Amino acid sequence: MATAFKMVEPLEYYRRFLKENCRPDGRELGEFRATTVNIGSITTADGSALVKLGNTTVVCGVKAELAAPAVDSANKGYIVPNVELPSLCSTKFRSGPPGEEAQAASQFIADVIENSQIIAKEDLCIANGKLAWVLYCDIICLDYDGNILDASAFALLAALKNVQLPSVTINEETGLSEVNLKQKNPLVIRKHPVATSFAIFDDTLLIVDPTAEEEDLASGTVTVVTDEEGRLCSVHKPGGSPLTGDKLQDCITRAITRHKEVKKLIDKVIKSIKPK
Amino acid sequence: MAAAEACVGQVVLPGDVLLLPAHPDEDGERLRLGGGAAPRGRLLCGPGLRRCAAGLLVTKCGLLRHRQTGGGAAAGGAYWVDSQQKRYVPVKGDHVIGVVTAKAGDVFKLDVGGSEQASLSYLAFEGATKRNRPNVQVGDLIYGQFLVANKDMEPEMVCIDSSGRSNGMGIIGQDGFLIKVSLGLIRKLLAPKSEIIQELSQLYPFELVLGMNGRIWVKAKTVQQTLIIVNILEACEYMTAEQRKQALAKFSGN
Amino acid sequence: MAGEKEKVVAAAGGCCLRPFSCEQGLLSRPDGSAAFLQGDTSVLAGLYGPAEVKGSKELPDRAVLEVLLRPKVGLPGVIERSREQLLRQTCEAVVLGVLHPRTAITLVLQVLSDAGSLLSCCINAACMGLLDAGLPLSSLFCGVTCALDPNGAIILDPTTRQEQEARAILTFAIDSPERKVLMTTTKGSCSVEEGPCFPP
Description:
Radius of gyration of chain A: 21 Å
Shape of chain C: globular
CATH topology of chain C: Ribosomal Protein S5, domain 2
Structural class of chain A: alpha+beta
CATH superfamily of chain A: GHMP Kinase, N-terminal domain
Family (chain B): Belongs to the RRP40 family.
Shape of chain A: elongated
CATH superfamily of chain C: GHMP Kinase, N-terminal domain
Pfam family, one (chain B): RRP40_N_mamm
Oligomer: heterotrimer
GO molecular function, one term (chain B): RNA binding
Radius of gyration of chain C: 17 Å
Strand content of chain A: 25-35%
Order of helices and strands of chain C: EEEEEEHEHEEHEE
Number of domains of chain C: 1
Number of strands of chain C: 11
Order of helices and strands of chain A: HHEEEEHEEHEEEEHEEH
Distance between the termini of chain A: 53 Å
CATH class of chain C: Alpha Beta
Structural class of chain C: alpha+beta
InterPro entries (chain B): Exosome_RNA_bind1/RRP40/RRP4 (IPR026699), KH_dom_type_1 (IPR004088), KH_dom_type_1_sf (IPR036612), NA-bd_OB-fold (IPR012340), RRP40_KH-I (IPR049469), RRP40_N (IPR048541), Rrp40_S1 (IPR037319)
Number of strands of chain A: 12
Largest sheet of chain A: 6 strands, mixed
CATH class of chain A: Alpha Beta
Number of domains of chain A: 1
Largest sheet of chain C: 5 strands, mixed
Subcellular location (chain B): Cytoplasm; Nucleus, Nucleolus
CATH topology of chain A: Ribosomal Protein S5, domain 2
Number of helices of chain C: 3
C-alpha cells in the first residue's frame, strides 16, 4: 500500500513523513547519512580518497605533474579540478561530453578551492618562473544518490590530505630538474573547507543531506561551505524557491556543526593510517 | 497589497497581490477561469491573474481592468490584466488566422503562432461532406475559431459556428498581404468602434481580416493601396493617436 | 512599456549603485527582449516562448526552460555553463511553467560588455526579458552584487577593479514581494558576521 502511495503521490508521501519530523529512510530532518571515508584507495595516484554518504559514492584521485608556471603568475602552481558524472552512476546521465550538472559541479569545486585557499598555489611552485606542480584532481561519482557537492568537496579534501609529492631539485649546472622519489613530502593544507547541502521542501522546510529522490522532489537546494574558523567560503543557492535571510542563517549554523563532525572524522582516519 | 478596485486602470506587476472585495457569503469563494457568462455577483479571474490564498496574484505586467458582469453585486465582475505580448497562446473561442502546413489524412495542420500546430478537420467547413471536400492547399490562409484549446491538448480549429454556418470563416482568398503585429495592437483593433479602423476606412475601401493571434490580412484594390494600409497598421504599434491622425491626413489629401 | 527607459541612482545606506538603465522590446524577432545596463556592464536578453520543444526535452507537466549565456568573445565554457544553471534555476522558481506544459521557453543572454557585476546584470536582464515576453510570473526578481573590500566595507555593484581588489564578492537574486533570497553565490571567503549583508 505504502509503495503504491509513494509511486502515485511521491510529494504527498514525503510531506506525511516531514510532518512527523522524520524522513522515509528514518533520518531526522537535520541528520546526515552515515559518512565513511577511505583514504589512499588508489595506490597509483599521488593522493586519493573514497567517500560514501549513504549510497552516494565518490572517488577522488590527485595526479601531480610538473609544468612551467604561467607567465603572469610565475610563483604559482596549478590546481585543476574536474567532476565526472558518468552514465554508470545514475540513469540521469548519458555518456558523452559532460552535461550541465557535471560542469556546474566542476565549477563549484573550482570555486571552493579558489575561495577557501585550501592550498596556497605558491606552495606548489618549485622554481620561480621555471617549474611548478600541477595537481589534477579528478572526482568521479560511482553511485549517484544525491548531494554530490558535499561528497565531492569531502573527497577532494581527503585526497589532498593524502597527497605525497616527491622532492624536486634543480641541478644548478645542467638546469635540469631531478626528482627524488625516495623523499616524499605531504602537501600543506591551509584550510579545511567542508560543504553542507540542504534541500528546500514546500518553500519553508529545510532538510539536510538530500538523497537523489529528495533532490528531485525538492523546490530548491542550498550549499554552504565553511572552514575551520567558521568563515564562509561559499553560500551557493542556484535558484529554486526563495528563502528568508533567517533561514539562510540557520543553514550556516548547521554547516558549522557539520564541519566539526567531518573534521573529527577525517582526523581520525588520518591518524589510523599514520602508524604504518 | 492593495484592494483590487483601487488598482483598476493602474499598472500592476507580477508578484503584486490584490485583495478581494468582501464577498457575500452565500457565493462562497468560488471562482471561474476564463470566458463564459458568469452568474451574478461572481468574480471572474481573467488573463494575467491567478487566485492565491490572500487574494489575486498578478502574473503579468500591464494595466488592471475590471468589468461588471450583468450589473450584479459590487463584489462581482471580471478582473484582468491588459498586457502587451508577442507570442500567442491559443484560447477557446478565439478567431485566428492560420497557415496550412500539412495535410495529414482527414485533418489539416495549421500554424497559428502558438507552441503547437492546430488541427482542422476537413469536415469543419460549411457544406463539407465526405465527398465534397474543401479545396485546401498547403500554404493557404485559413480564418477559423478554436473549438478546443487548453494547455494539455492539441488545439483544434473549426471554420463553422455551432449552427454549421461559415459566418465569415474559411479559406482567405488569393492575393492580399499577411502581417504580424503584437497581441496588444490586435486587441486595440478588435475593440468595438476601434478608432484606427474607423479612420482607415475613410481612406479607401479595403478588405481586412484580424486574427487574435496577431495576424492581419489586408487586401485593397491595388497592391500599392494594400501596402499603404499595411504600413500604417504596422506603424500604429508605436504611434500615438495624434501622430496617426497626422499621417492619415497626408494620405487623404492625395 | 516598450522602449521604456529609466535612470536611477539609488543611495542605500551610503552604498551607491552605478547608474542603471533598461530598454525593453528592442529586438523584433524574439517574443521578448531587454537590454540592461549597469554602469558600463551591459547584457542583452532575447526570449522565445512558449514555443515548440526541440528534441526529447519535453516535460509532460511543465514548460522546459533553457538558458544560453553567450560571452562577449569566444565560445561558452564551464563558467558560462555554471552561470546558465544558476540563471535557469532562478527563472524556474519564478516562471509559472505549469501553465504551459510541453512547451519550451528559451532565454538567450548576450554579454555586450563586462565592467564588473556581470552576473547580477544578467539576472536583471533575464527578469526584464521575461516581463517583456509576457510570460506568467509568480513574482519579479532582481540581482545585486556586493563586494567586501579589504577593510571590510561593503561596496554595492562593484566595477571590475573593485572586484579584483575585493576580499569577497557575493551575488544575490532577491524576489519582489517578500525580498527573499532566490539565489546566492559567493567568491572569496568572509566571516559569518560579514555574510549577512544578506538582504535586509
